[in-house]
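Support request, please re-run this one:
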Amino acid sequence: MLARSDRLVLLTGASGYVGGRLLRRLEDTGGRVRCLTRRPQLLRDRAGHVTDVVQGDVLDRGALVGAFDGVHTACYLIHSMGGVGAFEELDRGAAANFAEAARLAGVQQIVYLGGLGRDHELSSHLVSRHEVGRILRASRVPTVELRASIVIGSGSTSFETVRALVDHLPVIVAPRWMETLAQPIAIDDVLDCLMAAIELVRPIDAVYEIGGRDQVTYAELMREYARHRGLHRRVMHIPLITPRVSRMLLGRLKPAYGPVAAAMVDSLRNETIVTTVPERVAFGRARRGLSSAIELALAEEDQAFADMRWSDATAASRSRWGGNAVGRRLVCSRAMSVSPRPDAAFAPIQRIGGATGWYALDWFWKLRGLLDSVRGGVGLRRGRRDPQKLRIGDAVDFWRVERLESDHLLRLAAETKLPGRLWLQFEVEANGRETVVRQTTVFDPAGWVGLAYWYLLYPIHRTVFGRMLHGLGRAMQTDHAISDRAAGVSAASAQGVRA
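Re-run finished. Output below.
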C-alpha cells in the first residue's frame, strides 16, 4: 500500500472555487498533485512549481489518455452549468468519460462533491448532481460522494447569490423557496471533508451527507448575512413570484455569477439538509454554525484584500467609470511615473495629512472633516503623531494607518462616518530608471445606500484623489530637486576643501 505522501492525486476543477482552494490544501501537505484543465496556461501561474498541470477535457475521452497514469485518487469537482448546451447531457458525458478513464488506468479512489437533496421531485440541477455520482460509482472504482448544501465562502456561487440580494435590495421580495430549509457549510469544512476522503487509508464506495451545524431557511440565511454586514433588511413574502422572475433578477444583480445562479433557482425549492449522519468521524463530526461560517468568510475576504498588491492586480486592467468591481468592493487605481528613487518618492507620502495637508484641494478635506465632526465623527482634529514618520496604528486626520512597508507601501483606513468602508493605498515600485507611484482607493459599500453614495460622489472623489496624486508628484520632484542642490553644494564644498 502506497504511503499517503507517495499517492498521486488528480484534481479537476482547480481553476474553480472549491478546486482552487483544495489545490492549495494539497500543496500545503506536500503531496503529489496533477491538475487536469482545458487551459493549462491559466492555471500554471496559480499552481505550485511541483504541481503537474496537464491539458485535457473531460468531454473528450481521447484527450484523457495519459492524464490518469499513476493516479491513486481522482477528484471530480466540475459541472457544466453556465456552459453551452444542456448541462444535464454535458454532465452525463463528462462523468462517463472521467469514470471510464479512471477505471482503465487503475485509479484506486474517486472523490466527488455533489449536492444534498432527497431523491424525490428534485430540480434538474440536483438530479444531474446525483446522476453524476451514480455514473462515477458504476465505473466500479470506489467512489466517495460528498453531498453538500450551500457553501459559505467568498466566491461560492450560492453565497455570492445571497450577497447580491442582500447588498443590493433594501427590501427582499421572497417567493416560496425563501422558506425552504438548507444546511449551509463553511468552505473550510468542505475542504476538511475532501481532504479526509483523499487521505482514506483504504478505498471506500459510499455517499456521505455533509452540512454545517445549523438548519435554516434561505430567509434566515439572508438575515444572518445582513446582520454581519450591519444592514437592515426586510423580507417581504410574495409567493406569486415565479422561478422565471427570480432567474431574471439574479442574472441582473450578479452578472459574473448570473448564468449559474439563475440555473440554480429551481433547486432552491428542494430541502438540502443532512438526513443521515455519516458514521465516519471524519465526515460526521460537529462543524461550524452559520454565524461562524459567515464571519470566517468575511474575515478571509478582508485578509485577501489586505494582502493584495494593486500594482500587480490592476496593471493590466482598464479602469471603468465608477471603479472596477472586485468581489463586493469597488476599486479605483491610478499611477504615475516619477524620477526620484523609491525611498525619496515615498517620503512625501509619509508626510501626508496633518500640517502638511493632502497635497491638493485642502479646502475639500477641511470641509469633509467638518461634516464628519458635525455627524459625531473624528473629523480632522486628530492631526498626526509625527510630521515626518508614520507607524502602524497611527491616526492621520480621519484615517488610520493599517499597513506600512518602508519605502514601498502605505494603506490608510478611513474612520469617517460612511455607508461602508474606505481604504486609501499608495505603492511605490522601481521600474527601470523611473519609479512608479500607484494610488488606489477601495470602497466596500454597505448595501444599496453605500452604492448610491459611491456613484453619486464618484466624480468628486475622482477629481480629489487625482489631484492628490499629481500634488504628490510635484512634492516628490521638489524634494528631488532640493536633494540634488544639496548634493551639489556638498560636492562643491568638498572640492573647495581639497583645493
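The two ends are 84 Å apart (CA to CA). The longest helix spans residues 447-498.
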